[in-house]
Amino acid sequence: MAIERKRRSFIDIFDEYFDDMERELDRWRESFVEGPSWNLKASTMEPLKNMRVLPTEVVVTVDLPLTKESSLKVKALDESTLEISAQMKRKMTFKELGITHHKGEFQKFHCHMRVPVPVQMNKMKTKFKKGMLEIHIPRKRRH
After folding, report:
1. Which pLDDT belongs to residue 2?
2. Would you say residue 20 lies in a domain?
3. Residue 36: left (phi > 0), alpha (psi -120 to 50), or beta?
4. Taking a C-beta distance cutoff of 8 angstroms, is the pair 121, 137 a contact?
5. What is the pLDDT of residue 114?
6. Backbone angles phi, psi at 14, to 5 degrees
7. pTM for the whole thing?
8. Hey, which of 1, 9, 124, 142 has its CA 20 to 30 A from 90?
9. Is 26 within a domain?
10. Residue 53 β-bridge partners
């Protein structure tokens, strides 16, 4: 029994190429274009964060005021993406933040961070003190 191999048409190859290009463009656009730093449906706010790439490690700092330490979760989604989430001690409103043209409240912090260099996510270390989360991730060594 011969295995039939379906040949792809030029149009299918062309469509696949442009779908890939569109995905890459969307990912690139997300890294440069800022959207709102909240999600009202999920009642989440994106915290202030910073990433420093050092020769031996990547250090991520995240500002999480009013956070219940027991609810803090730092998870590696894949080899280059972190997900950080935490429950707030109390609800916060736009009005408390000085924003008067929006209505809503927040109960959680949530964010994703993409690490731009190869790292060893399984050796990640976290420290949380006085509302500041510090994450140290060793970089992979090149051979």
Report:
1. 60
2. no
3. beta
4. yes
5. 92
6. -60, -45
7. 0.70
8. 124
9. no
10. 58
Report the number of distinct structural domains present in the chain: 1
Q: Which domain holds residue 121?
A: 38-138
Identify the residue whose tokens are 């933040």.
97
pLDDT tens for each residue of the chain, 143 residues long: 566 667 778 888 888 888 888 888 877 766 665 566 877 788 888 999 999 999 999 999 999 999 989 999 999 999 999 999 999 999 888 788 787 887 888 899 999 999 999 999 999 999 999 999 999 999 998 76
Residues 6+ apart with CB under 8 A from 107: 43, 44, 87, 88, 91
CATH number of the domain enclosing 66? 2.60.40.790
Look-up: residue for tokens 């949380």?
A: 128
What the block records as the tokens of 74 is 């730092």
Chain position carrying tokens 């043209």: 101
| 8 within domain boundaries | no
Strand ranges (E), 46-104 = 49-53, 57-63, 73-78, 81-93
Is 68 inside a domain boundary? yes
Could you say which DSSP state residue 117 is in?
S
Please tell me the distance from the alpha carbon of residue 35 to that of residue 33, in angstroms, as a whole number. Answer: 6
